[in-house]
Every structure is written in C-alpha cells, then in structure tokens.
Amino acid sequence: MSDPTPGFARLRRWLPDLLVVIVILGGFYWYRTQDMLATGNEQAPPLNLPVLDGGVGGLRDADGKPVLVYFFAPWCKVCAASSHNLRNLRWFRDEEDLAVFLVVLDWQDQAEVTDYVERHELDFPVLLGDGRTAQAWGISVFPSYYMLDDEHRVRRRDFGYSTLLGLWLRTVGLS
Fold first, then answer.
1. Are 128 and 102 contacting, i.e. CB atoms less than 8 angstroms apart?
2. For residue 167, which phi and psi values (nearest 5 degrees)?
3. In this predicted structure, what is the pLDDT of residue 80?
4. Can you give the pLDDT at residue 4?
5. I need a labelling partner for 90 at 20 to 30 A (CA). Which of 47, 67, 145, 173 fits?
6. Coil, strand, or helix at residue 74?
7. Residue 61 DSSP SS3
8. DSSP label at 172?
9. CA distances in angstroms from 100 to 20, 50, 84, listed in the order given
10. Please, what is the angle between helix 77-88 and helix 164-171, to 10°?
11. How much is the pLDDT for 13?
C-alpha cells in the first residue's frame, strides 16, 4: 500500500533521524544540567556576595519577589550574545515584578567586570562570585540561570543562550 501523500512518505523517511537528534540533544541537556540545583520545593542556597558597585547584596534584597539569578563570565561569547535579551527583559518584567541578579564567575579583576557590564549596558546588581559560589549553585557552564519563586525555591533552571521570549517564558508564573 502506498502512502497517501509524498509529504507523509518524506516524514516517515526523516522521522528516525529526527528522533536520534532529539535523543542526542536531550542527553546533552541532561548531562549539562545534572550538577545544577534540583527544581522543586527546596530553597536556593544563600547568595550574599560583594556587589560590583560596592556593599553586599543577594537574595535577601529580594524578599517576597521572584528572582532570576544569571551566572556569567566576562569572557563568555554566549553570555555577551544573550546580554541584550537579559537587558530587554525589563520591557516585560519590571523591578517590582522580578528581581534580577547577575553573578559573575571566572573573572580576573573588577575592571574586567565593569567593562563587560558597561559595554552591554546591564543595569542589574552584579554580584562578585567565586569558585565556592559556582560549587554551591552547581554552575559548570556559562551562562547558567535559575528562576526562583517568591519564596526563593528553584522552579526552573537552564543554561546557554536564551532569547528574550525564552527568558520571559521562564519567568512567567513564578510568584
């Protein structure tokens, strides 16, 4: 019996290849996120770090608000490529609706971080993290980010480039 349409035959021919690609990408995603914090009802680890502009800041500054915690490195090209999406997230989620903290990891000096923040016009608190911060939050790739609800429980996690729409969708329904 022949297929009713040539499009259906083409789909049947490509379906096994598509499934292999999906399995490979799913495996890669699982591998890269296996060390990240689990989502669910557990509180996020403490985040109380020096702020690039001076002082100390962290999750306590966002009590009662959902939070996006974005981990980056100044040398990371993917971080640089997605920084405009992060900046433009404020079009959809204002400061009263969502707290955003950038946490820099794997940096040489504050001048390098300041240059990165100014070059990408980022207007969020930038916390100066270190190896202990990366370990506590399970960060092994840049950028990585967590979406916390208003009680600072990890609700979503991801890594890599994200579009503005992707960032917005990940932050919907956190409160």
1. no
2. -65, -45
3. 96
4. 59
5. 47
6. coil
7. helix
8. T
9. 37, 15, 14
10. 60
11. 80
SS3 of 158, please? strand
Amino acid at residue number 128: L
Mean pLDDT across the chain:
88
Long-range contact list for 168-172, CB < 8 A, 24+ apart?
168/89, 168/92, 168/93, 170/68, 170/145, 171/66, 171/68, 171/89, 171/93, 171/98, 171/147
Cis peptide before 46 (omega within 30 of 0): no
Residue 58 backbone dihedrals phi, psi, to 5 degrees = 165, -160
Residue 28 predicted with pLDDT over 60? no
pLDDT at 17 over 80: no
- The per-residue DSSP string of 86-148 comes to HHHGGGTS-TTT-EEEEEE-S-S-HHHHHHHHHHTT--S-EEE--HHHHHHHT--SSSEEEEE
Whether residue 63 contacts residue 94, with contact meaning beta carbons closer than 8 Å, is answered with no
Give phi and psi for 62, each to the nearest 5: -125, 30
Q: Taking 80 as the threshold, does the pLDDT of residue 112 lie above it?
A: yes
Listed in sequence order, the residues at least 6 apart from 147 whose beta carbon sits closer than 8 Å to its beta carbon are 66, 67, 68, 154, 155, 156, 157, 170, 171, 174
153 by DSSP, 3-state: which? strand
Task: Please state, in angstroms and as integers, the Cα–Cα distance from residue 57 to each residue in 30, 49, 74, 103, 124, following that order.
Answer: 31, 6, 20, 11, 11
